[in-house]
């Protein structure tokens, strides 16, 4: 399955994407707010292996679909949509982009398309986005795609030897259409 935006192609990962995936997952700035630390090539290969298996529409709780984000000839990011509850028609979006193209609106553009995919194609009712409370750039992305901050969980997660506060943002299908 492929999705398109004005500047981007969101397509399934292929084995050829290892170099791109490794390049951003080996950058300390990129992984700063992720659950894992920098990945070596073997770690990136394991991650890619998992991405290669997640290319179909999620149907059961906990299943996700991942897309490699291509801009021109370059793969610049990794975005996904995970079905949190089929019964509640609720999913979570996530995104990781390499630092070289930061601040050019690519995450927002890809995330907007994930909302369209979720609401139009998957008939979801609610889509959420979660990020560390200190992660201002991610909050800016969630805000500009129309999400509202719904929660701030204080020191809720133990990540990389420290307690991290987490924000949860969300948008409903009728808000998105409005
Ligand atoms: C967070 C991330 C997805 C943003 O990607 P991006 O392509 O630069 O995003 P965009 O250009 O669409 O938007 C970035 C927004 O953050 C804002 N921003 C960037 N740094 C900021 C900061 N330190 N404080 C406040 N806002 C900031 C930008 O101004 C922009 O908002 P605007 O369009 O309203 O001006 C990207 O940096 C990334 O992948 N980081 C590493 C992985 C990660 O942390 N993923 C998210 C996990 S929750």
Which features characterize this protein?
alpha+beta, eight-stranded mixed β-sheet, 178 residues, binds coenzyme A, globular, 6 helices, Aminopeptidase
Task: Walk me through what this model shows.
The protein has 178 residues and is of the alpha+beta class. The chain has one domain: 3-Layer(aba) Sandwich (Aminopeptidase). Helices cover 30% and strands 36% of the residues. It has 6 helices and 8 strands, in the order ββαααβββαβαββα. An 8-stranded mixed sheet has the order 1-2-3-4-5-6-8-7, with helices on both faces. The radius of gyration is 16 Å and the shape is globular. The model has no long low-confidence stretch (mean pLDDT 97). The structure holds coenzyme A (COA). The site of coenzyme A has 21 residues, from β5, α4 and α5.
Strand order of the largest sheet: 1-2-3-4-5-6-8-7
Question: What best-fitting shape do the alpha-carbon axes yield?
Answer: globular
Distance between the termini: 27 Å
- Rounded mean pLDDT is 97
Give a brief outline of the structure.
With about 180 residues, the protein is an alpha+beta fold.
Q: What is the secondary structure topology, with strand pairs?
A:
Elements: E1 3-4, E2 8-11, H1 18-25, H2 28-31, H3 41-52, E3 64-71, E4 74-85, E5 90-97, H4 106-121, E6 126-132, H5 136-144, E7 148-159, E8 162-172, H6 173-177
Parallel strand pairs: 5-6
Antiparallel strand pairs: 1-2, 2-3, 3-4, 4-5, 6-8, 7-8
Helix pairs in contact: 1-3
């Amino acid at each position: 399955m492929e999705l398109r935006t004005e500047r981007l192609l969101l397509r399934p990962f292929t084995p050829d994407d290892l170099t791109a995936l490794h390049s951003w997952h080996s950058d300390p700035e990129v992984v700063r707010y992720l659950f894992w630390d920098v990945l070596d090539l073997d770690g990136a290969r394991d991650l890619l292996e998992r991405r290669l298996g997640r290319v179909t529409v999620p149907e059961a709780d906990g299943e996700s679909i991942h897309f490699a984000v291509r801009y021109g000839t370059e793969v610049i990011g990794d975005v996904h949509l995970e079905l949190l509850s089929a019964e509640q028609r609720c999913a979570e979006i996530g995104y990781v982009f390499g630092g070289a193209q930061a601040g050019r609106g690519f995450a927002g553009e890809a995330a907007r398309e994930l909302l369209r995919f979720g609401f139009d194609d998957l008939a979801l009712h609610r889509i959420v986005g979660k990020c560390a409370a200190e992660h201002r750039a991610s909050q800016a992305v969630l805000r500009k795609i129309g999400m509202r901050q719904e929660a701030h969980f204080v020191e809720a997660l133990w990540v990389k030897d420290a307690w991290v506060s987490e924000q949860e943002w969300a948008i409903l299908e009728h808000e998105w259409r409005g």
